[in-house]
Design brief:
four-stranded mixed β-sheet, 2 domains, two-stranded antiparallel ribbon, alpha+beta
């Protein structure tokens, strides 16, 4: 039985990961395009407002007027519309009236980065929705096939359950809140790199090349966060779909299964691997995957006859076991 579930669990996880990788391939170009657009803004700033000594503070602090103001408003309105905003919803007319060239450039870059999130969300949700559908169907089909039950008509998850899985918060948020949180971090870091005028002078006189290099480095981190999030959420939705199939098929126990290689974490490989828990007490980050970012662990069905022969951890017992493990780690 172990080989049966091992092969099918691996097959489900591999398929879900392929969907996740496909999403990554679509998300990465969004970051690249945003970075190119930001570099164009910075290049324009230096071409128009720099001399031999660097950026001209007098030119940067001039108030936008005429065609420059109209171009600015048209540009950010196009970006804001994609997020469901209008310029008038966000900006006070008095603020627009005293907006400098430098601040206008910063606002352009701010909305350029903000525009990443909704596109990332759209791609991610489509991928996760498919992962839930396919993982649930495959898991439930495997269970019914093993038990000799007819799986026709039983293998599809209903829309309401899928919606609930997609929207469920775990460990403080869901994929949507995490995408926006990553976006806010990236935006904050990029704004810190941009030049600031303090006391009539530039707070930082870094060159265009250095500024663009720092921005690219932050974008590299932003892309890493985005890819890590896809990997983690792919694992989460795969396992949640399988958990729902356990519930719907009346499965009472599951076995935690870690992928054992050089990348396996201590908690998954040394502590949780092969441990058996109750389906009713499954808790993400405690006894059910994902346990951490980029977690690759999964679970497999344990039937009642098998569970009687092995140790089944209750939630309380496992809590105590984890405390013992923590004490061991502290002594090292």
């Amino acid at each position: 039985m172990s080989d049966y579930w091992l092969q099918r669990t691996k097959s489900r996880l591999d398929y879900a990961e392929r969907i996740g990788y496909s999403a990554m391939e679509k998300i990465l170009p969004i970051y690249e395009q945003a970075l190119r657009n930001i570099n164009k803004e910075i290049n324009r700033l230096y071409v128009n407002y720099a001399d031999k000594t660097g950026l001209d503070v007098m030119e940067l602090t001039k108030i936008l007027s005429g065609a420059d103001r109209e171009n600015f408003l048209t540009s950010i309105q196009a970006k804001m519309r994609k997020l469901g905003f209008n310029v008038a919803d966000v900006y006070d007319p008095a603020y627009i009236g005293r907006l400098t060239r430098l601040e206008a450039m910063k606002q352009q870059i701010y909305w350029e980065i903000q525009a990443i999130a909704p596109r990332e969300l759209e791609i991610s949700e489509k991928a996760y929705s498919k992962i839930i559908e396919e993982s649930y169907s495959a898991s439930r089909r495997d269970i019914r096939e093993y038990l000799g039950r007819d799986y026709r008509g039983f293998a599809h998850i209903d829309d309401m359950t899928k919606y609930q899985i997609l929207r469920e918060n775990w460990q403080g948020g869901n994929y949507s809140t995490r995408i926006w949180a990553n976006n806010a971090i990236l935006n904050s870091r990029i704004q810190e790199v941009l030049p600031k005028v303090v006391g009539g002078g530039l707070m930082s006189g870094i060159s265009q090349e250095k500024m663009q290099r720092q921005i690219r480095e932050y974008f590299d981190v932003g892309r890493y966060y985005a890819m890590r999030l896809v990997r983690t959420e792919t694992n989460y939705f795969t396992n949640q779909a399988e958990l729902q199939s356990y519930v719907d098929e009346g499965i009472e126990y599951y076995r935690y299964k870690a992928i054992l290689d050089k990348r396996t974490s201590h908690i998954c490989g040394d502590i949780l691997n092969n441990q058996i828990f109750k389906v009713s007490e499954a808790q993400v980050g405690f006894n059910y995957p994902p346990m951490h970012p980029s977690c690759r662990s999964d679970t497999e069905v344990v039937f009642n006859e098998e569970a009687k022969k092995e140790k089944v951890w209750t939630k309380v017992e496992w809590q105590e076991e984890l405390k013992k493990e923590e004490a061991k780690e502290e002594k090292k």
